[in-house]
Amino acid sequence: MPLLSRLGFARNALDVRYRATRIPQRVLLHANGPSLIDFAPVVVRRLVDIVNAGGAGGIEHECSEGAATLEGEEIQGDSGNWVLRMGGVSPVFIRVMVEHMRMASGAHDIQALSLRGELELDDGPLSVDVNRVRTWLDDARAYPRTWCHKEFPVSLPERDEVTLRVRCVGVIDAPIRDELETLVTLWINAVAHIIGDDDREVDLARRNVFPAVGRAKYEMRALFPQFPHALGPACAVLSNMLLRFHRERARLAEVELGAPW
Predict the structure, then answer these.
(1) Is CATH 3.30.70 what the domain over 154-258 is classified as, yes or no?
(2) Domain 8-137 class in CATH
């Protein structure tokens, strides 16, 4: 049984055929449900942003390889179709996509969901079908994992609350400051459907998940008054996103992530 609510369609109205590759491929995404025009475009574009920020990487593809573009969108009534071009994502990120898309009808339940890449499946670990996704939806630990690296030091001190300190090699000017703050916000959205450490669904309506942010010449700090998600998979997403930021936007001198480990 899925760990999250509103996944009833996964029993008999979910269709998935995707084989992960580094080279982007065309992916056809289809959903049925009410009010798609009001909510689904935001959900789909957020998934694209997560991929392009490195949040869909894992041990199969490093974070800098993730790439996604939205090439087409058509919503008519209760039917929505999107054409994506996507590559360099961990196979288990398809589970994340399904969990995000369950919210594509807002307060209503979606009735069906289909995700199909253009490559044929094989017997390898990069191939994903509906049975594999159903297994992941039942698994509290089946999320993208950390791409290991030694490009900047990461410390994990014990804290009563979740805190983040990012120190850059150079001065944090206004554009880099804005991009770091955008990354933190995107991270919160990326992990929004990860369960809590008690393996239960998180009720975000009752949580204040967005941080207080402080800035200095070389550092950005964030304090999260509440962080209800399981730390292991959530931190893996952040690590991968920061590594991509380090490679493509601004060199990082060190990262400190404090938590009640």
Answers:
(1) yes
(2) alpha beta
Question: Which part of the chain has CATH 3.30.70?
Answer: 8-137, 154-258
Check residues 38 and 209 and name the one with the higher pLDDT. 38
- In angstroms, the first-to-last Cα distance of the chain is 28
Q: How far is it, in rounded angstroms, from Cα 122 to Cα 128?
A: 9
pTM over 0.90: yes
Confidence tier at 172 by pLDDT (50, 70, 90): very high
Confidence band for 206, pLDDT divided at 50, 70 and 90 = low
Alpha helices, DSSP H only, in 102-230?
130-137, 174-190
pLDDT higher than threshold 90 for residue 129:
yes
Cα 62 from Cα 22, distance rounded (Å): 9
Q: Are 112 and 9 in contact (CB under 8 A)?
A: yes
Residue 110 exposure: Cα atoms within 13 Å on the Cβ side: 29
